[in-house]
C-alpha cells in the first residue's frame, strides 16, 4: 500500500487556501511541519485533514487561538448564531411588579419549565423582600 503525499502546492490547492496561509499555520503550530526538508518536503493526508479542520473552524468564526485548543482535544465551542432580521424567537415575560418585567428565552437559557417557575418564584420573593426592607425604613 502506497502512502499518498502532497507538495505544498497540491496541499494548498486541495484545501483551497493560499500556500502562504499553510506556512503561517505551520509557524503558529496549528499544522505540523512537513515530512522531509527543503525541496524534498512533503505533506500527508493527516496534514490535509488538519488543514481542512482549521479552515472549517476558521470559517465558523472561531479564533486561531481557540482552534489550537480544539485541535489539542478540547471540545469545540459552537459560536452563537447571529440572529437575522425577520427571524422569530419565542421569549417568556414574567411580570414581577408594575414597571418590572423579567424577560428570558428558555431555549437559549436551556431552562426547563420547572426551572423557569422556580426562577420566577425566587425573583418575586426577592422583590418582596426588597420592598419590605424599603417599607421598614
Structure notes:
The chain has 137 residues and is mainly α. It folds into two domains: 8-71, Multidrug-efflux Transporter Regulator, Chain: A, Domain 2, CATH 1.10.1660.10; 92-136. It is built from six helices and two strands, in the order H-H-H-H-E-E-H-H. It has helices spanning 8-15, 19-28, 45-59, 64-71, 106-109, 113-136; strands at 92-97, 100-104. It has a two-stranded antiparallel ribbon. The radius of gyration is 26 Å and the shape is rod-shaped. 9% of the residues are buried. The mean pLDDT is 85.
Radius of gyration: 26 Å
Q: Decide which structural class fits the backbone.
A: mainly alpha
How helical, in percent, are the residues?
Answer: 40-55%
Which shape, going by the Cα principal axes?
Answer: rod-shaped
Query: Which stretches of 5+ consecutive residues score pLDDT under 50?
Result: none
The order of strands across the largest sheet is 1-2
Q: Within the CATH hierarchy, at the fold level, what is the topology of the largest domain?
A: Multidrug-efflux Transporter Regulator, Chain: A, Domain 2
Based on the model shown, name its key terms.
single chain, Multidrug-efflux Transporter Regulator, Chain: A, Domain 2, 2 domains, two-stranded antiparallel sheet, 6 helices
Please sum up the structure shown.
This protein has 137 residues and is mainly alpha-helical.
Amino acid at each position: 500500500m502506497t502512502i499518498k503525499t502532497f507538495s505544498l502546492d497540491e496541499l494548498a490547492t486541495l484545501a483551497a487556501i493560499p500556500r502562504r496561509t499553510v506556512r503561517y499555520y505551520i509557524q503558529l503550530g496549528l499544522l505540523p511541519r512537513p515530512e522531509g526538508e527543503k525541496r524534498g518536503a512533503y505533506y500527508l493526508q493527516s496534514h490535509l485533514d488538519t488543514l481542512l479542520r482549521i479552515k472549517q473552524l476558521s470559517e465558523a468564526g472561531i479564533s486561531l487561538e481557540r482552534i489550537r485548543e480544539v485541535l489539542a482535544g478540547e471540545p469545540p465551542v459552537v459560536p452563537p448564531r447571529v440572529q437575522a432580521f425577520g427571524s422569530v424567537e419565542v421569549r417568556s415575560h414574567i411580570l414581577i411588579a408594575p414597571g418590572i418585567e423579567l424577560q428570558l428565552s428558555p431555549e437559549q437559557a436551556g431552562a426547563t419549565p420547572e426551572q423557569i417557575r422556580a426562577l420566577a418564584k425566587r425573583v418575586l420573593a426577592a422583590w418582596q423582600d426588597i420592598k419590605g426592607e424599603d417599607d421598614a425604613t
